[in-house]
Amino acid sequence: xxxxxxxxxxxxxxxxxxxxxxxxxxxxxxxxxxxxxxxxxxxxxxxxxxxxxxxxxxxxxxxxxxxxxxxxxxxxxxxxxxxxxxxxxxxxxxxxxxxxxxxxxxxxxxxxxxxxxxxxxxxxxxxxxxxxxxxxxxxxxxxxxxxxxxxxxxxxxxxxxxxxxxxxxxxxxxxxxxxxxxxxxxxxxxxxxxxxxxxxxxxxxxxxxxxxxxxxxxxxxxxxxxxxxxxxxxxxxxxxxxxxxxxxxxxxxxxxxxxxxxxxxxxxxxxxxxxxxxxxxxxxxxxxxxxxxxxxxxxxxxxxxxxxxxxxxxxxxxxxxxxxxxxxxxxxxxxxxxxxxxxxxxxxxxxxxxxxxxxxxxxxxxxxxxxxxxxxxxxxxxxxxxxxxxxxxxxx
Amino acid sequence: xxxxxxxxxxxxxxxxxxxxxxxxxxxxxxxxxxxxxxxxxxxxxxxxxxxxxxxxxxxxxxxxxxxxxxxxxxxxxxxxxxxxxxxxxxxxxxxxxxxxxxxxxxxxxxxxxxxxxxxxxxxxxxxxxxxxxxxxxxxxxxxxxxxxxxxxxxxxxxxxxxxxxxxxxxxxxxxxxxxxxxxxxxxxxxxxxxxxxxxxxxxxxxxxxxxxxxxxxxxxxxxxxxxxxxxxxxxxxxxxxxxxxxxxxxxxxxxxxxxxxxxxxxxxxxxxxxxxxxxxxxxxxxxxxxxxxxxxxxxxxxxxxxxxxxxxxxxxxxxxxxxxxxxxxxxxxxxxxxxxxxxxxxxxxxxxxxxxxxxxxxxxxxxxxxxxxxxxxxxxxxxxxxxxxxxxxxxx
Lengths: 396, 396
Fold this sequence. Notes:
homodimer, alpha/beta, Aspartate Aminotransferase, domain 1, Aspartate Aminotransferase, domain 2, 2 domains, seven-stranded mixed beta sheet, three-stranded antiparallel beta sheet, 14 helices, 12 strands, 12% strand, globular, PyrdxlP-dep_Trfase (chains A, B), pyridoxal phosphate binding (chains A, B), Aminotransferase (chains A, B), EC 2.6.1.- (chains A, B)
């Protein structure tokens, strides 16, 4: 019998996807180069040449039966070890291979992490603005997602609202830094305060509260800065990562869960992820891609274009009178719309072939997101269109 | 908070995996070539050279941003079309790309198919002997798996037991042909009778009953035969496939769900699979592997070794007095043990470095499985060991 719940979900189309489809259709009319498409967070830079070389070498020299053979259900040991060592070098952690569970990107990582540290009926807290797919990710586990209102001053954490929302049914807190859609990079002070608060609540409630840290933008940080590593601040942390952005491999679906060695039941969490996989049909990322990524585990694509684009857009938006928090990283910027109704604002922008995503689905009304993982030349053209748009529609 | 249900699952180790680990450990002592390891269904032949060539060509010529870019959430259209056309050519179906949902192997396909056509509390029927992972696959959806006792005469379907088990809460029937572990190939008469029975029950109960057909061994059929295509017999069929065996790519996690165009809500089922993915963290198989497989979609590895091995084993087992149904396909054979307790039988075989899997976890007591996806030379040596074993232990 057809499952009516999934059937009903067919109605609820993602705004981002709808706008992206509109951009593609509009591109067919006027040439896609003329659509100033800021809808999708799809990396615009190629993977490092060394990744391509590593894969070419594997195809030339590895035994096919080994290259394409079943990965052990917890991932290929040498790959897990390479990831652990890279994290230890970069963030002063002490992971072993046993703390690393390779997954199909951050979506796969979150699907496992959420299931391991919540049960149906539990509450998971996240902070607005947040990636809209967190809703189906959490729904899929049977837990309930609670969204804490945004700190619109600087898109760190609104601790007052967080403290009001916290209660004993909260099993996990889900953060995303650098943040999609705001571009905010949680500062060390934010993570310190978050960790102190969670430790106090663990003591008060007498149970663990896990921090699930979604980190696909970890390497895209501007002004020579870096993202403080959340797991350094709080023992009960599961770091969820994807190579989609850092290596520009979004279609390869490769990432991991990294379990803080000091977390409760740390030695059981990766084996438990293996049990989760049996129910969800996961069974590890591609074996060849695991082996290829392990060879370039400390590298990134040339990510500099994102900072170039951010600076161009931030300067233009500020000059045009937008209220906007300067992004510390990612390839997103999240300005306040020029009218209360962000949907109306973004609809009007379409007349200038500017494809902007209204903020409502990110849990904050009245803003819009621009995903500037596009060519700088197009960013420059879009600024001229933005000027015309705000001048002609809003008289600025 | 740690999920106690997944934690409790850690105790229940798979017998197959335990035996495989024993074989590896024993191999470290005496040399793996001396372990007559029939535990794991891991293809022993390489992928076709044309697959390696296709991948090498993609890495040499494709734009990395396209090769590794996000797959649309329902799969890459050209890949879906190539799969549809291949199935149409081979089985006289009339699939379009819209009926094909690429997945991470058959496990991913089953995870989606089961969720789309059942809801928590529904019943799913399968037939012994069956692949033990069906239990967690179905558990993960919230539905309940009912196992119909085996037809031990020829490992087709025990219709008497099936009719007794059928009831109105059954939302789906799960078959696996060619079958792991028996090697049975369901005959056209079996599929015809199955389809007629399901159609009658649909009419009687006034609701759909879907047939979920798990077909990873579809291309491994002996004696020049072929597997009748189950979807040809019954409209409400979701065919679940993996390229793990036919192309020897088990670690690449690539397969699909193919929805019979005449199924109820056929046009909705693939989009519903896309909704299922959002909750399970699936998000398509590797983009590059999708593109590579689409180029060799009608090919297989050289699978002839499996038939060679089957004939050697079948003849030897028969000669040694085992009751055994001759496999029509796969790389498994499923003889009756020489004592009632298959676990005891397989334990004793270990003294001869024969690694046999007892049948209890397949839902039939008193048998054992041999996965003969190993070198023929080792099969020949194993026959000598088998002779000594049955002579010395059972006096034959």
